[in-house]
Amino acid sequence: MDEHVWQGLAEVLRLQGYDVVHVNEVGREGLDDADQLAYAAAQGRAIVTFNARHFEPLAAQWFLEGRQHAGMIISNVLPPGELRRRLEHLLRTRSSTELQNTVQWLQAYR
User: Fold this and answer.
1) pLDDT averaged over consecutive 10-residue blocks of the chain (110 residues)?
2) Count of domains in the chain?
3) pTM to 2 decimals?
4) For 66, left (φ over 0), alpha (ψ -120 to 50), or beta?
5) What residues make up the domain containing 89?
């Protein structure tokens, strides 16, 4: 999960059995978005972010360069409970394979 996403959500999702980390938990706070995406990709992790302005162009750049990533999940800023509910819906309905190299808009998972 990207820096501006509620860190407690990672903890809640882990309690449900999901393999989730927040950038603050792995000492990556304050780093450039491209670096965060590269780290997530190297770890085989999708990234959850509120930062469409930077991650949409990164998705296009990675596509044009033929670079692989585990997925980008972009959301508008939501209250923690609603964010959790929508992420759980996404995680129940999409496999990690289905997320690879895609941009998922959390608004679609109401």
Assistant:
1) 95 96 96 97 98 97 98 97 97 97 96
2) 1
3) 0.94
4) left
5) 8-108
